[in-house]
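Work Package 3 (structural annotation) set out to generate three-dimensional models for the target panel prioritized at the project kickoff. During this period the team completed the workflow that converts sequence records into C-alpha cells, so that structures can be stored uniformly alongside our sequence database. As a representative example, we reproduce one entry of 193 residues exactly as it appears in the project archive.
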Amino acid sequence: MRLAAPLAFGMRLVAISGSLRSRSSNGELLRALARIAAPAIDLEIYDGLGSLPHFNPDLDQEGMQLPEPVQALRRKIADADGLVISSPEYAHGVPGALKNALDWLVGGPEMVYKPIALLNPSPRSVHAQASIAETLRTMSTTLVDGACIALPISGRGLDADGIVANAELRARLEGVLEAMRTATLLPPLVQHE
C-alpha cells in the first residue's frame, strides 16, 4: 500500500519510544517510520524521555513554572498534529520513563483530542499496550484506528534499514501514516463521536 498523495498534505508528528535503550526495537521502529514518512510528513523523534524529572504534582500547579524539560515536551506535543508511541513491556507493565512523561502531560491541554498511534514491536506483549491505551483514553486523546498495531520486530535483529526494506513491515507502517493523515484531517468533535 502506498500513501495517498502524501506531498499534498503537511503533517507534523512527534514520536516517543518508551525505551531508553539507544538501539531498542522501539527506537528502530520509530526511525523506520520517520524514513518512510520523509519528506512529506515531518516526524520528529523525541529524545528527552530520560531527562524528565520524576513527576511531582506539587510542581504542576497553576501559576507555577514547570521544569524546562517538561515545558519543552509540552511545546513539542502542542505543536504537533499527532503523536506516535512505541513502547516495550517490562514485567507486564509500562516502562516507568514513559509513564512519567504521560503523568507530566496529564495536567496540560496539549494532549486533549490529539490523534495517537500506538506501535508495539512485540505482538506477545499485550499488557503494556493495553495500559498505555487506557491512560491515553483517560487523557482524552484519540487512539486512531489503523494506527495502533503490533509488528513482529523484537527478536529479529532488524534495524531501521531492515524494517524499511521488509515489504510487509513497510506497508503496515505506511498504513499507520495514512491512518494518522486521515485522522488529522478530521475536526476533534468528529473524532470523538
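The mean pLDDT is 90.
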